[in-house]
UniProtKB/TrEMBL annotation:
<dbReference type="InterPro" id="IPR007295">
    <property type="entry name" value="DUF402"/>
</dbReference>
<feature type="domain" description="DUF402">
    <location>
        <begin position="70"/>
        <end position="183"/>
    </location>
</feature>
<dbReference type="Pfam" id="PF04167">
    <property type="entry name" value="DUF402"/>
</dbReference>
<protein>
    <submittedName>
        <fullName>DUF402 domain-containing protein</fullName>
    </submittedName>
</protein>
<dbReference type="InterPro" id="IPR035930">
    <property type="entry name" value="FomD-like_sf"/>
</dbReference>
Length: 218
């Protein structure tokens, strides 16, 4: 089914805050269409931080394409989605409201071996009746688990996104600067915060979230 061409609706109002343990839908958009819809559990939702837990085994909706094809498919403006299973890793995604990036803490599953962090440039989170919307900005900065170093990732894909018109040259330059700035802070002034995230674990009582039937609603 072509999700890009299906109009989004607004059946409900947005909650001012979610509570820890609430289930939400985190949606990634391109050109106003839903590119992926991922069920997540709220860890924190405050004026200082929004953090979400993505659990292995979670069923989520994503585009039918290969990694090599995905930017060309996004630029086409039309794509089909299907259900996938989130496998192999635990993720904790943390974002300061209003900032144009999130920091992902990543562990292997099922043993919770800490693999490091990822700075993920994106549009600031938009609160919806279902959870949060954003648009991923392709480039990443990967931070070692010991906080000793970081490196940019997918610079080639950022160049392709600019070539295809998904992003402008000026946007690409800003995204690159933001990724570098945040990664630099992570290995210097924010080390304690990142170490606290790496020590986090979900309560044993938390259940696996499921994709809500109205996940396409705005």
């Amino acid at each position: 089914m072509d999700r890009r061409r299906r109009p989004l609706t607004s059946p409900n109002t947005c909650p001012s805050r979610w509570s820890p343990g609430d289930h939400v839908v985190y949606r990634q958009l391109w050109s106003g269409g839903v590119w992926a819809a991922i069920p997540a559990t709220i860890v924190e939702d405050s004026s200082d931080l929004v953090s979400l837990y993505i659990a292995p085994g979670t069923k989520f909706s994503g585009p039918i394409c290969t990694r090599e094809e995905h930017l060309h498919v996004a630029a086409s403006g039309a794509w089909k989605l299907k259900l996938y299973e989130w496998a192999g890793q635990h993720h904790l995604w943390a974002t300061v409201p209003g900032e144009a990036c999130s920091i992902w803490t990543i562990w292997s599953a099922p043993d919770w071996t800490h693999l490091g962090w990822k700075v993920n440039p994106e549009t600031p989170l938009k609160r919806t009746p279902l959870g949060f919307d954003t648009t991923d900005h392709v480039l990443d900065a990967v931070i070692d688990a010991n906080l000793s170093s970081w490196q940019l990732k997918d610079e080639d894909e950022l160049a392709v996104a600019i070539e295809l018109g998904l992003l402008t040259v000026s946007q690409g330059e800003r995204i690159n600067r933001e990724a570098r700035r945040v990664a630099g802070e992570c290995v210097s002034s924010r080390r304690r915060q990142l170490q606290a995230w790496a020590a986090w674990r979900p309560p044993a009582s938390w259940k696996l979230p499921v994709l809500q039937p109205d996940w396409e609603a705005a």
